[in-house]
Every structure is written in C-alpha cells, then in structure tokens.
Amino acid sequence: MAARGAAHNTAQAHQTHNHRECIDDALKRAREICAGRGAQLTPLREKVLQIVWRSHKPVGAYDVLDELARSHKAARPPTVYRALDFLMSEGLIHKIESLNAYLGCVEAGAPHSGQFLICRQCGATEEIVDAKLETALDQAAKRAHFAGERKVVEISGLCARCAA
Amino acid sequence: MAARGAAHNTAQAHQTHNHRECIDDALKRAREICAGRGAQLTPLREKVLQIVWRSHKPVGAYDVLDELARSHKAARPPTVYRALDFLMSEGLIHKIESLNAYLGCVEAGAPHSGQFLICRQCGATEEIVDAKLETALDQAAKRAHFAGERKVVEISGLCARCAA
DNA sequence: ACCCCGCTGTTATGATGTAACATTGCCGAA
DNA sequence: TTCGGCAATGTTACATCATAACAGCGGGGT
C-alpha cells in the first residue's frame, strides 16, 4: 500500500483530523490506482471523487450534482451517475444502499463490498474492515448453500461521540 | 411460536412447496400477532401483505400498487406506502434496501433486522436467521465503539439451484 | 349530538436513477 | 493527412421510488 498519513481516512477521526490532507491522500491514491490499471481518472471523475470525499458522510447523487454544477454548468444527472459508476467499478467509492448515497472508500484498490457503521445522529459513516465479520458472512452463506458475491452490511445507530 | 408447517416460509422451498399454504400461514400468523397487540390489520393492509407474499421474491411498491389496483381502484402510491410502513413497523415484512423492494418476513413478530440471500439469477430471496452472524455484527460494532441499532445484511449471488 | 382519532382518499410533487441518441476529441491505420 | 473507431461527455426525455399536505369518513367514548 502506498504511504499515507496514519490517522487519515477514518470516520472516527473526522472531528479532529486535517480533512484537506485526508482528501488529498484519497485523490492521490486514486490517481495511482487508476494509472496502474490504465483506468481513466478524468478531471470530471476526479472532481466527483473530490466532492464525495468532502465529508465522511454519505452524499446523495443530486448533492454531488449541485456541487459539481458550481464549476461545471453542463452537469446533468447522467454526468454524475456515470462518474459514480466509474468510481464504484474501480473500487474508489461505495454506495450506501440504505441511504441511496455514496461514500469514499478507505480501502481503495482492493475489491470488497464494505461494511459500514452509520450514525443516525451526525451522519458520519465509518467503513470498517472486520475479518471476523467477513468470515461470518461467508460461513452464513455457505451454510445456506448460497454462492455469495456482493455483500451489503450497513449498521446504523449511534457513533461513540453521539452516544456520549 | 405458533404451529406451522415445517418446510413452509423458506425461499429454498419455493420451487416445490405448496405456496398457497405458505401464504395462508403467513396471513394467519399476521392476524394472530396483530390481534395480540391490538394492531389493526385492516382488509387493505392484509391485502397488501398477501400481495407481498405472492412470491419469495422481493416486490416493488409499484408492483404492489398495480396488483392492488386490480381489486381496489382507489389505490395510489400513498395507499401502498402506508400499508407497507405499517407492515414493517409490525415486523411482518422487510425492506430489501439494495433492491428498493419488500419481502414477507419469515420470523414475523420478533423484532429483528433480517439477513438476506438474494439470487441475482432467479430473484428468490431467502431470509436467514444466523446467530453466529448476528454475534459477529454485534462484536464488530462493539469493537468500533458503535451502538448498533438497525442492521442491514444483504448478500447477493447465486442460489444453490441457479449455481447448478 | 359531538368530538377525537385512526384509516383511507386525493392531488401534487420531490427524490433517485436511466434510456437513447448527439457530439467531441483522441489515436491509430491506411 | 484523412478517416474511422472508440471512449467520454453532452443533451433531452423519461422511468422509478417515495412523501407532503390536506380532505373525508367512520367508529368509540362522553
């Protein structure tokens, strides 16, 4: 994995960290990943990725559109959805199904479905990578003789800060 | 739990079982549950529940609407969404977030979030109740100091029949 | 008789997502 | 150099999913 700052890219840190660095890290990593694959991270796609990364909260496609339109007047829904589809296919963002919204991926590059903790109070959403949970999902599917492919795991509740 | 036929109410069985009995069981159980709670399972709501139970595939709200309108010309979107909201609040159906569709609950009465195996080929969706997976979800949230409430678990892939 | 309240009716609109075809710009082959 | 192909983007229109807001109706209690 490319070098990156230690505490960045985690939702827990979102109150305290330097978020500009956090975004910059994500964009830099995205460029590296795409360059290594020959995938075209165009200015438009990179701009959409940057908008998604503006916070650690899932962002709706039309919110992305509104923001994008400030600098790109031609933006229309297909513009945004195409960019989001590209970013998802490259594993740079995830869709949060229970919110119909999109979130930057903290493990970009490695294909995975993602596991999310969504605070219903502040909206901050943390992507976790929990090997035991992953195993439990695989085992559960296996017990049911089901060939699992994509896994949606979204736990909503209260983050530590909001619960306090 | 009320007495009910052994192989009913499972998606695996959906190719072979007597689905009329399956629906009847679900409706009977729903009536019992609502009666026991003083919840009003009106004819309209029961009809919607019956429509959702017509198959073991998640059904969209507008598909419910189309079907409902055959016997109930006044049906409009709010009619359906209100009934679906009621049925969800009573734990009689689940929403499948990744499909924006609704499915009869096989463990009606006990409040739970549900874990689903969704076949991308045939659409059949099985609700599983996997204690180990449940534990793994709780543990994962706990490790992240997150107070989990609602859990969305939807694994899509191929059911045993379609994989063969 | 009257009110309250839950359920349903009704109209309109908001929010999310996609189909289909046009245009642009680059790059390689002839 | 010109042309043809192809990926990305532009553009118009529409499909799909969901809810706001207010009206009407009917049963149960006082």
Would you give an account of this structure?
- Two copies of one chain form a homodimer.
- Chain A has a single domain (11-163), classed as Arc Repressor Mutant, subunit A, CATH 1.10.10.10.
- The first copy, chain A, has six helices and five strands.
- By secondary structure, the first copy, chain A, is of the alpha+beta class.
- The A-B interface holds A 12, 97-98, 115, 117, 119-120, 126, 128, 130, 132-133, 135-137, 139-141, 143-160, 163 and B 12, 97-98, 115, 117, 119-120, 126, 128, 130, 132-133, 135-137, 139-141, 143-160, 163.
- Strand 5 of chain A pairs antiparallel with strand 5 of chain B.
- Chain A binds a DNA duplex (30 and 30 nucleotides) through residues 40, 42, 44-45, 60-62, 74, 76-79, 81-82, 100.
Q: Supply the number of structural domains of chain A.
A: 1
What is the share of helical residues of chain A? 40-55%
Helix-strand pattern of chain A: HHHHEEEEHEH
Backbone CA Rg of chain A? 16 Å
Q: What top-tier CATH class of chain A fits best?
A: Mainly Alpha
| Parts with pLDDT < 50 across at least 5 consecutive residues of chain A | 1-8
Strand % of chain A is: 15-25%
Query: Which pair of chains forms the biggest interface, and how many residues does each contribute?
Result: A-B, 37 and 37 residues
What is the level-2 CATH architecture name of chain A? Orthogonal Bundle
Q: Shape of chain A from CA axes?
A: globular
Roughly how many Å apart are the termini of chain A? 35 Å
Report the strand count of chain A.
5
Q: Strand order, main sheet of chain A: write it out.
A: 4-3-5
Q: Mean of the pLDDT scores of chain A?
A: 92
Q: Please name the fourth-level CATH homologous superfamily of chain A.
A: Winged helix-like DNA-binding domain superfamily/Winged helix DNA-binding domain
- Major sheet of chain A: 3 strands, mixed
